[in-house]
Design goal:
The chain is mainly beta. It is 13% helix and 34% strand.
Length: 495
């Protein structure tokens, strides 16, 4: 769904355009879910050299060994297949004391030029943006954990925090035996048809998830310890947008997601292989261990899921439009998950659906490729059918040549094409659309759906920022008055 692009420029309020956009063009900045670039500086490191200087001078195939110390800079491999390692990647004290910090809102390490044999090994990697970077990340983590999402450092700084390691644009390095910790953003962001090997790392206390996999990427995520991470969904690993990773022999524990998938969330047509993992003591709203949604179809084989907890689906929660592939008989082991092990969201069959299903079905949802409301495809309805279903509208307005119906008991408006006399769009002004709640920001939506297909500023009378997604046969637009303001409404149109 998302195009693999090397540079992405996000539209900003016009008072910033003169200064900011040229800077982004010069720097080649990225804006990824959980990952933001800026202008880096080098400081707080051994005085005799920077790591980037060594990379700049190195040739393909060389091994660079780095002395203990704290290096506050962004490392870009620049397409070179180098091995960058600490003096002793097997020694925990050496790893602990060889630190790449990142600086001024940039990732600590970047692979963006198709590196396919590069190796990063034996470092502690963080993105604290000042001298108390780890304490800042700890503060964000604990604020998030207690659901104070709009009263923490991220909102105060009004930007998306950097990931620790960025892998993008068809890159496939090996990232192994590192400690990736205390990042206000994501630990590792994998995007744009990339296929790195992520193995033997400790990934912990990251405030927007341990690993996020996006945009048709297919990494191997193996033998990592992923624990005590926080995110809105997929606190350990989040897999979105047609990705096919192998998730094998990892230990995912005590990760906490507000919505779905305490340990792992899988969505947007992704189909990972998840096997031989230990998934324990994770929590979420739905799917304490694993949350599956938006036409995803993961395969689960020989995993241990124990002591996971959620409001629904202690071990696994599966949304109605998604599938879960299990061996016959089920080879996974389940123990003490609350409530229960696997919760499959049921299709609504008749008017006698129970209260739980009414709650699941509240708002608009996607089923069998259609966006529906209360089991109805409103986009297929005529003007008369809408009036028969909802009655006479209380308000009739005009919007860009269409007729807009509003009803006092509905949190959406229905747009009617005056020529066809059929529904041409729905405008949701409150409540819920699929997994998006009213009041979320563009950044929070990107955490759920990945990067928008288009981002622009609407020069209509409303003067709004728009994030557009192509969702099968639909176009979905989110509107907000400011880049980081809560969305004001959602438009759904059939293509």
């Amino acid at each position: 769904m998302l195009a693999a692009t090397r540079y992405n420029i996000t539209f900003l309020p016009r008072r910033f355009l003169v200064v900011v956009i040229p800077a982004l063009l010069i720097l080649g900045a990225f804006v990824l879910p959980g990952c933001r670039n800026g202008n880096g500086e080098k400081e707080d490191r051994p005085a005799e050299y920077s790591i980037q200087e060594k990379i700049d001078k190195a040739e393909n195939g060389e091994t660079i060994e780095i002395d203990k110390g704290t290096y506050r800079e962004t490392i870009d491999f620049q397409g070179k297949n180098l091995t960058l390692r600490s003096k002793d990647p097997e020694n925990t004290e050496v790893v602990k004391n060889t630190v790449i910090k990142g600086n001024n809102g940039r990732p600590a390490v970047i692979f963006q030029s198709g590196e396919n044999e590069a190796v990063l090994e034996g470092f502690t990697i963080s993105t604290g943006e000042d001298t108390t970077g780890e304490q800042v990340a700890e503060r964000v983590y604990h604020d998030n954990l207690h659901n104070n999402l709009h009263d923490n450092l991220l909102e105060e700084e009004n930007h998306l925090p950097p990931c620790a390691v960025m892998v993008t644009n068809h890159s496939s390095p090996s990232i192994k035996n590192n400690v990736i910790t205390a990042n206000p953003g994501t630990g590792i962001s994998i995007d744009a048809n990339s296929s790195p090997t992520v193995a033997g790392n400790l990934i912990t206390r990251n405030s927007r998830g341990g690993i996020i996999v996006l945009n048709s990427s297919s990494p191997v995520i193996k033998d990592n310890e992923i624990k005590n991470n926080y995110s809105s969904s997929g606190a350990g690993i989040k897999i979105l947008d047609g990705c096919t990773p192998l998730v094998d022999e990892n230990r995912l524990a005590e990760n906490h997601a507000q919505n779905r998938g305490g340990a792992i969330a899988v969505g947007l047509n992704s189909s990972p292989q998840i096997e031989n993992n230990t998934i324990s003591n994770n929590t979420a709203g739905r799917g304490g261990g694993i949350g599956i949604y938006m036409e995803a179809s993961p395969t689960l084989h020989e995993n241990l899921l124990e002591n996971n907890e959620a409001e629904k689906g202690g071990a696994v929660w599966v949304c109605r439009e998604s599938d879960l592939e299990l061996s016959e008989p089920d080879s996974n082991i389940y123990s003490r998950n609350e409530p229960g092990n696997i919760k499959k969201q049921e299709e609504i069959k008749d008017e006698d659906k129970d209260t739980e299903e009414e709650t699941e079905q509240a708002g608009f949802y996607k089923s069998n490729g259609l966006i529906k409301y209360q089991d109805m495809d409103l986009m297929q309805k005529s003007k008369d059918e809408i009036r028969n279903i909802f009655g006479e509208p209380e308000g009739i307005d005009s919007l860009m040549g269409s007729i807009l119906y509003s009803y006092p008991d509905l949190d959406f408006r229905i747009s009617i094409d005056p020529h066809e006399e059929k529904v041409d769009a729905v405008y949701i002004t409150g409540g819920k659309f699929m997994d998006i709640q009213a009041g979320m920001t563009f950044s929070e939506i990107e955490e759920e759906w990945g990067k928008a297909d288009e981002t622009y500023f609407s020069e209509t009378e409303f003067q709004e920022y728009v994030n557009l997604y192509h969702l099968d046969n639909y176009t979905v637009r989110f509107f907000a008055g400011e880049q980081e303001a809560p969305i004001s409404y959602i438009q759904i149109q059939k293509k």
